[in-house]
Amino acid sequence: MDWKAIHRWLGLTAGTLAFVLGLTGSMLAFDPVQQAWQAPAAPRDLSVATLVERVTRTVPGAEEIRHLPSGAIVVFSFNGDQAQASYVNPANGQVLGAWQPSAPPRWVKSLHRSLLLGDAGRWGAAGIALAIGLMCLSGLVLLLRRMGGWRRLVARVRGSLAQRIHVVVGRAVLALLLLTSLTALTMSASTLGLVALDAGADPDVASVVPGDTGQTAPQSLPGAQLPMLQGLSIQDLRKLNFPDSADPVDTWKVLTGQGEVWIDRYSGQTLASQDTTFAQRLYDWALVLHTGEGAWPWAVVLAFVGASVLLFWWSGVVMWWQARRQAPHITGNSPLTQADMLIFVASEGGSTWGFAQALQDALAYSGHRVHTGALEHFQTTAATRQVFILAATYGEGQAPAHASQALERIEKLGANSVPVTVLGFGDRQYPAFCGFAEALEQTLRAQGWTELLPLERIHQQSAQQFARWGEALAQALGEPLVLDYVPRVPPTTPLTLVARQAYRKHSGEPTAILRFAWPAQSAMERLRGKGLARFAAGDLVGIVPPGSAVPRFYSLASGWADGFLEICARQMPGGLCSTHLLGLQVGDSIAAFIRSNPGFALPRTRRPVLLIGAGTGVAPLAGFIRRNDRHTPMHLYFGGRDPAQDFYFGPEIQRWLGEGRLASVQAVFSRVPEGGGYVQDALRRDAERLRGLVAQGALVRVCGSRAMAKGVAEALDAVLAPLQLSVSKLKAKERYAEDVF
Ligand SMILES: Cc1cc2nc3c(=O)[nH]c(=O)nc-3n(C[C@H](O)[C@H](O)[C@H](O)COP(=O)(O)O)c2cc1C
């Protein structure tokens, strides 16, 4: 079943009306809260008989006593021709003031119940309640799929702001919202007459007038002397009707949660009783659960649930809009049966379609007929010469929703001689990096499909990595091929260089720590989301060099709170961006934007933190240490080549040690005698100590080249084996994150 389509379709249609119900529901929820404040609640141990006695004294002509869900007591009376309803203090019967039926304006109620459309509207409102229930169910399925199962349901949420809001709010209120929609349906069923709640006609009862004594009119028993009322606690009473003074055969009528009872006004005997039906009890429960009547703390919860619909609706629409913007608009698609090159895509957020378009354009440019489609349509035709699968991974190594059946489909199809090449898209911060692409690769090979290129895995939609894959592809095809993927670049802000510290002036590639300032922003600009986004150490700054549309990303060595933006840039041979950066003079500007890297950010923690970095990879780690005002025990392992050349942040590191921001540092250098080798060698030597830190719950952050990160992971796997732990287990617990380049 396509849960996503159901969820999205319902959200965009019924969701907009659900937003109205949520808003009005929230407003209505204030009523029980206000009611609870209006009059004192009756004490628990008060008997109805005592209350009747007090009321008879203070309210002449009392006809009815109601015990409101809020706990307050209201007495209805007739004073001459004047009907009155007053709050009464149950402790002494004193009249407190006139009773106001209900505070919220009628139209709010009417909008909530029937959209101001009478009976047809009631059906509409019930339909929306049903739709909300279905959205809750489909939402749960999608939530589980996104997070990767029940066990990971509470894990940190990733994605765009709208996605995070949708998921976080969903986790908090899904069950409550489902309950609200079910209770609404229960209530609608009775209002629409689908179930009968009437207990049936009142029994035909009458008080028996005692035999004529010949002198006076027969005396009614005062309410205070009725045995039934003496034994009835006010907590159980809902409503008590006094016998009509003008009708000698009228009776007392008592309504409780259990049912109705009629009492003879002379003898105090019970004349008849009627039990509450199951349907009535159900309705009563639904009423309390849906309205919070008589349970003001619950009403407050309901107000939040109502308001959450607003957030759902807004974030849902934004998510839909974002997905639409990224939706596949493949241009220049050839018909499947005529294409010699097929591209199949599996994407959740839509970005992989952009890569497919670049591949399609490049292949078409070299004269191929190319067809691009979604992976669930995987197939080959007589014309097919090559197949490429571009697949993103979600959840814990899962397929994007639309391609959830693709593996099974491929398993059922027999292989033929057409080579199928898989290109995975993912993020190294997830334990199952490109897990779905790997599963596809395995299945295809097991089925006997050949390949033009082995599986390649693209980290964080890297345009550079994709271009390198394109070069390998061009070589394998024996054709000139240029993959020109132009990512969508957010608006940039000019940053001005305010300081630079150069390293390696004499040998090796020049490197510099560059510090930038950003233009001042007014509060209004910030509100409108203009200017540089706030950032923390470990987030990325995207820099668009002049003459290119493709940004390069650098890890940030500072946070917004530091008041400057700092990176450590190394000259890449022939690198457009690094040449630009290293050529900057103080006062020059660059065009930049922020990309958050939430998986790598360091949460506030008291646990020990193990920071492992090599070369310029120490930059984000330096940013973490710089902000460590709380003196969390941070331990740094730094790997360089030569302390005279590339001990980046060396003097600062010494200072941070002295200030207690850094608990210890192990710096090793691979190109000098007795330098200590590589950083992974230092880890192996410190195995015992590291096991101790990890056993204390340490968080680990690793930053550096891909080869270095691999070496570190292997070394730590060996170190942690005696603890029955591994890097992938720590990753799954979100205790280990890498930032590799
Ligand atoms: C909620 C969520 C879960 C993800 N799970 C994984 C994962 O388990 N493994 C992985 O390698 N990448 C994972 N990613 C990263 C995406 O696969 C990666 O960003 C990909 O480029 C997105 O492509 P798309 O926009 O076409 O869907 C996840 C991303 C999100 C937002």
Automatic annotation (TrEMBL):
Keyword Transmembrane belongs to the record: yes
Keywords, sorted A to Z: Flavoprotein, FMN, Membrane, Transmembrane, Transmembrane helix
GO MF entries: flavin adenine dinucleotide binding; FMN binding; sulfite reductase (NADPH) activity
GO cellular component, as recorded: cytosol
InterPro entries named in the record: FAD-bd_FR_type (IPR017927), Flavodoxin/NO_synth (IPR008254), Flavoprot_Pyr_Nucl_cyt_Rdtase (IPR001709), Flavoprotein-like_sf (IPR029039), FNR_nucleotide-bd (IPR039261), OxRdtase_FAD/NAD-bd (IPR001433), PepSY-ass_TM (IPR005625), Riboflavin_synthase-like_b-brl (IPR017938)
Enzyme class: oxidoreductase
Residue ranges of domain Flavodoxin-like in the record: 341-474
Protein name: NADPH--hemoprotein reductase
Gene source species: Rhodoferax sediminis
